[in-house]
């Protein structure tokens, strides 16, 4: 015997429809939480900032790039990033620092973190000068928002500048077009220098 016994209308029927709607609504919510990250939703800028703060809090880490946030749904957050360290440092100490950062990221943000270490040449005046000049040239090119993993190989006839550039996701140009533009700018403005460029797309902003 239902509530309808006391009323003239069939409340059981309406209640059933309401319960069905509620279940449907909850289901859509769960599906959306699970699917939108998989569909390539950009990570929360606040999360990106927290990750950067934790990584850069270690003095052994000079810079970071190539952050990718893999969000496989609630409670399944994985991140990977590159940490720049002084190439002259002790590999065991640097690895220890990076491991500590991975553990802090897991503890504070609940994410599984994998950090790739990139050695950086520090305190080499010739390399610093080339790097600085390159940054000026790159700053003149639209659509490029960052340069990282800079290396230099000097030869008798020319010098190769090897580096990655980062472009924001959603720009109209292809990676090949950006690469051609960067190479042309370097050859024109830095005589005797050739650019060996890898184009990265930013996944976080
Ligand atoms: Zn790198
Ligand atoms: Zn390790």
Structural account:
The protein has 205 residues and is of the alpha/beta class. The chain folds into 3 domains: 9-36; 45-120, Cation efflux protein, cytoplasmic domain (Alpha-Beta Plaits, 2-Layer Sandwich); 125-201, Alpha-Beta Plaits. The protein is 43% helix and 28% strand. The strands form 2 sheets. It has a 3-stranded mixed beta sheet, covered by helices on one side. Helix 2 runs antiparallel to helix 3 (91-109). The chain is elongated, with a radius of gyration of 26 Å. The chain binds zinc ion (2 copies). One zinc ion binds next to strand 1 and strand 4.
Helix percentage range = 40-55%
Name of the level-1 CATH class of the largest domain: Alpha Beta
Q: Reading side by side through the largest sheet, how are the strands ordered?
A: 1-2-3
Total discrete domains = 3
Total helical elements: 5
The gross shape turns out to be elongated
CATH homologous superfamily label of the largest domain:
Cation efflux protein, cytoplasmic domain
The residue-averaged pLDDT reads 87
Distance between the termini: 59 Å
Using the 3D structure, state the CATH architecture of the largest domain. 2-Layer Sandwich
Tell me the series of helices and strands, N- to C-terminal: HHEEHEHEEHE
Structural class: alpha/beta
Number of strands: 6
CATH topology of the largest domain: Alpha-Beta Plaits
What is the strand content?
A: 25-35%
Radius of gyration, in Å, reads 26 Å
What hetero molecules are in the model?
zinc ion
Give the uncertain stretches in residue-range form: none
Strand count, sense and closure of the main sheet? Answer: 3 strands, mixed
């Amino acid at each position: 015997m239902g509530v309808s016994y006391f009323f003239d209308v069939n409340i059981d029927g309406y209640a059933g429809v309401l319960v069905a709607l509620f279940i449907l609504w909850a289901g859509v919510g769960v599906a959306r939480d699970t699917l939108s990250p998989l569909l390539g939703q950009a990570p929360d800028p606040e999360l990106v900032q927290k990750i950067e703060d934790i990584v850069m809090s270690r003095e052994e880490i000079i810079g970071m790039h190539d952050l990718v946030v893999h969000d496989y749904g609630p409670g399944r957050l994985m991140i990977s990033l590159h940490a720049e360290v002084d190439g002259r440092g002790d590999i065991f100490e640097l690895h220890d620092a990076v491991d500590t950062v991975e553990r802090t990221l897991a503890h504070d943000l609940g994410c599984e973190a994998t950090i790739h270490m990139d050695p950086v040449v520090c305190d080499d005046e010739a390399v610093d000068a080339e790097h600085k000049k390159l940054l000026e040239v790159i700053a003149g090119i639209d659509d490029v928002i960052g340069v990282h993993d800079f290396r230099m190989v000097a030869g008798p006839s020319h010098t190769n500048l090897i580096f990655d550039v980062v472009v924001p996701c959603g720009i109209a140009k292809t990676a090949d077009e950006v690469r051609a533009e960067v190479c042309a700018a370097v050859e024109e403005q830095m005589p005797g220098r050739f650019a060996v460029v890898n184009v990265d797309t930013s996944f976080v902003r």
